[in-house]
Task: inverse folding
């Protein structure tokens, strides 16, 4: 086994906490929803029991209405803010009675993660038995999303908080925050005692993050009220791509299991509508990529980020349209001085290659794009994205994100955010096996 793979396994083993994984020590000391999905893919290569437990624990925190929270607070610690008391998700009558959690979700990756685990498994029968046990919960989650998060019945679901996007402080949200009159909160940041503040969101951004939570809390996390009142209400191409990819995986897994025709048909109906509206509403011809739509202010958010290319992972564009999307990606993000793929448009004035989701390269997005590019036959670019990912980890370690500028990587100090970060390790293992 290569040294790098050994190191990756060690990161995962160290972050394992008896039934679930933390993304990394101190900065993220609980279980995060989409992190768990990516982590399970890594574990599936060498410890299927842990991969399954990771998913089982996540689904155990599901609410009665099918909702899956973004953080599950398994332990008490003051190394993270905002914790369970600030979120107060027990205000929702159907929230989990067993676990404390947030009242927001994250990109729905669990469906396609189950299929990835199945593909990796060497004991297909046992893995299919596991999938049989959990698949209905994932279906219920999709049902929750399409039933409660699509007020205009378009086939696209909204997110009501930037933390639901996974791309927490992307410049895409700046215009929305400018419409908000958030109070100045007094609170003690914890993240900036673990990580250089220049790599994290600003205090003013945190005011907005907390204000959106307060509005949801004031309305007991009621979805209808949130749809009516949240100042942040966005149709996000990354979130919807993950859902569409997961719909397809659930269809294929239900077919494998046999039976449950009603669910397969319902998934197919969601899928057909979603793909159609996605292509009609979220593709910007002039930009040549997919963009976000601000449902609250009824306007497209015309920025290019790595999320703009994620629909290729979910087979959303036609072959012709995929060609346009990949061309835009290479023209804007594929400069030879840049590693693929910056999280935000390097040609934009808002680009910041050090600051979280405002520019750095992220391993999970690279993994998504790598698999999407392969699907459409772009094997050379896929290979480049894979090699870039391996190289930045080899040079710097298993960081949370990395400077996209090649020139910054000469002394091994171009990894930012948390170190020994679980999904960087997990998806590296998967890339090395692919
Ligand atoms: C954080 O605390 O920055 C998390 O990413 C929120 O999900």
Result:
């Amino acid at each position: 086994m290569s040294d790098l793979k050994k190191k990756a396994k060690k990161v995962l083993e160290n972050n394992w906490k008896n039934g679930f994984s933390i993304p990394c020590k101190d900065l993220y000391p609980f279980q995060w929803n989409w992190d768990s999905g990516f982590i399970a893919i890594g574990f599936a290569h060498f410890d299927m029991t842990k991969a399954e437990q990771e998913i089982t624990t996540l689904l155990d925190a599901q609410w009665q209405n099918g909702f899956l929270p973004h953080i599950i607070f398994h332990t008490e610690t003051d190394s993270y803010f905002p914790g369970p008391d600030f979120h107060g998700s027990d205000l929702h009558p159907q929230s989990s009675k067993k676990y404390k959690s947030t009242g927001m979700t994250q990109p729905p990756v669990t469906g396609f993660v189950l299929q990835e685990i199945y593909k990796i498994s060497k004991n297909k029968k046992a893995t299919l038995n596991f999938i049989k046990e959990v698949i209905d919960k994932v279906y219920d989650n999709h049902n929750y999303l399409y039933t409660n998060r699509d007020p205009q019945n378009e086939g696209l679901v909204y997110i009501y908080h930037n933390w639901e996007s996974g791309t927490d402080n992307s410049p895409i949200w700046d215009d929305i925050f400018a419409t908000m009159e958030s109070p100045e909160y007094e609170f003690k940041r914890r993240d900036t005692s673990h990580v250089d503040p220049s790599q994290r969101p600003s205090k003013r951004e945190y005011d907005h993050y907390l204000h959106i939570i307060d509005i949801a809390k004031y309305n007991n996390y009621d979805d209808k009220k949130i749809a009516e009142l949240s100042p942040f209400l966005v149709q996000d191409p990354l979130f919807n791509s993950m859902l569409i990819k997961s719909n397809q995986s659930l269809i294929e897994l239900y077919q494998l299991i046999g039976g449950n025709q009603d669910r397969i048909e319902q998934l197919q109906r969601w899928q057909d509508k979603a793909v159609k509206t996605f292509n009609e509403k979220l593709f910007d011809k002039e930009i040549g990529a997919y963009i976000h739509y601000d449902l609250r202010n009824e306007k497209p958010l015309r920025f290019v980020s790595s999320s703009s290319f994620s629909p290729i992972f979910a087979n959303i564009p036609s072959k012709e349209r995929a060609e346009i999307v990949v061309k835009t990606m290479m023209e804007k993000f594929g400069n030879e001085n840049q590693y693929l793929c910056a999280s935000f448009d390097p040609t934009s004035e808002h680009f910041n290659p050090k600051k979280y989701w405002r520019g750095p390269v992220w391993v999970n997005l690279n993994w998504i794009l790598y698999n999407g590019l392969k699907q459409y036959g772009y094997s050379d670019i896929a290979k480049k994205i894979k090699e870039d990912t391996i190289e930045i980890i080899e040079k710097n370690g298993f960081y949370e994100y990395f400077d996209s500028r090649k020139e910054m990587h000469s002394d091994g100090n171009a990894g930012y955010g948390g170190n020994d970060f679980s999904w960087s390790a997990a998806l590296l293992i998967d890339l090395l096996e692919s």
Remarks:
- The first strand starts at residue 31 and ends at 32.
- The pocket of (2R)-2,3-dihydroxypropanoic acid is lined by residues 70, 163, 168, 191 (CB under 6 Å).
